[in-house]
Amino acid sequence: MKMWSGRFTKELDSSINDFNSSISFDHVMYHEDIQGSIAHATMLGKCGIIPIDDMEKIIQGLKGILADLESGALQFDFTAEDIHMFVEQVLTERIGDAGKRLHTARSRNDQVALDLRMYLKKQLILVYDEVHKLLDAIVAKAKDNLYSVMPGYTHLQVAQPITFAHHLMAYAQMLARDLDRLNDCYHRMNYSPLGSCALAGTSYPTDREYVAELLGFDGVMQNSMDGVSDRDYCVELASCISLIMTHLSRFSEEVILWCSCEFKFVELDDAFATGSSIMPQKKNPDITELIRGKTGRANGNLVTLLTMLKGIPLAYNKDMQEDKEAIFDSIETVKLCLSAFTPMLQTMTVKTENMRAAAAKGFINATDCADYLTKKGTPFREAYKITGQLVRHCIEKGLTLETLPLEEYKQFSDIFEADLFDAIDIQNCVAQRTVIGGPAPEAVKVQIAELEGRIKMLDTQR
Questions:
Q1: Alpha helix segments (H runs only) across 96-223
Q2: Does domain 5-104 have CATH number 3.40.1190.10?
Q3: Can you give the residue ranges of every domain in the chain?
Q4: Are 430 and 149 in contact (CB under 8 A)?
Q5: What pLDDT digit, counting tens, does each position of 164-221 carry?
Q6: Known catalytic membership, residue 148
Q7: Closest C-alpha to 179, from 122, 119, 241
Q8: 5, 24, 260, 276: which is the annotated catalytic residue?
Q9: Fold category of 109-143+153-358 in CATH
Q10: For the whole model, what pTM was predicted?
Q11: Annotated catalytic residue, options 15, 71, 155, 277
């Protein structure tokens, strides 16, 4: 018998019950449901809305249900409508009429909104911690590769020399912003909807602020209709996760390229690669390929939530039951991907010699040659043209800018002198780029220190 069956003369059709039920996925919120109910019962007793004896029975009964669920002594009934009805039903069976008082001054609408906020707050912290671990791994790898010169690319074409540390720190900056976004999301999420009831609050003299304080919220939702129908925090968290996954996917794509025979910039540890069923020589970066693929799931979940919300009027509508599977899947997906990517990165071997050899190709120091002329008074556009002509000349001669004789340089400009070869030395090209955010080892050290300080500040704001 459903808790709400008084209005109805027939039992719900069994197939519709299955369609309507959410306990198959919302049972994961059992701890939050019980914790919220304990706080609600405590408030009801404190405010004199229910007798103290009933409050104490309810609290002890709920604690017993929690202990039995966690020990396995009590199993979920997956024929129940949802986790909220399941807990209340078991409570009433165990303590009798006192259990029927628990739902006083509360609706499932504000109850589920409370449970979801509490559950997502906990999960958000777990995601934050996994992103933090990856950031720490990136910074550690960057510190080991401050002087590892490699080619930087635009349009996937060799562009200018950088260091592997500089490349890694670009992803560190992305993930640091992800931490910042998660932190902001947490604080906007941290307001209690409990006491909004179905949509219009209650005539009982409840103390919403007291319940919010018991449950660790910063305050209460200021509009009861918004309290039960808001799912902005689900969308915001899903958006944060989509960006994290997008950053992981971009990083994964680079690792896939770097592992290829054409690049050979890195080699994955055998524990984080797979082989082929037919080609014995293969060592495949399957982890990164899976992460790249799973990013589509996270993005799809975000679109699901936005689409679910876009057309529903205030206040609560059953459409909103679709929030949980989408956001729960995004959370589990990003945690799984982060926990796989971090140790893969930590154990990855960096092939510094191959990176340095690749940096020597493709006239990667052409911009520095143009800068050399500019610093000696040649307008940049003219210097750019001269350097382009030099590159074409080198290609025709089968030479590089480093091997072209000085006398041939002078055929293009009298400004060239012997100090040119120091200016276009690849190691020097990198070392001279000391501007804030540049790839010079000293500039990257500053970048690392600044980022570590920023992360520490974020950690204190949690």
A1: 108-143, 164-189, 208-214
A2: no
A3: 5-104, 109-143+153-358
A4: yes
A5: 999 999 999 999 999 999 999 999 999 999 999 999 999 999 999 999 999 999 999 9
A6: no
A7: 241
A8: 276
A9: Fumarase C; Chain A, domain 2 (1.20.200)
A10: 0.92
A11: 155
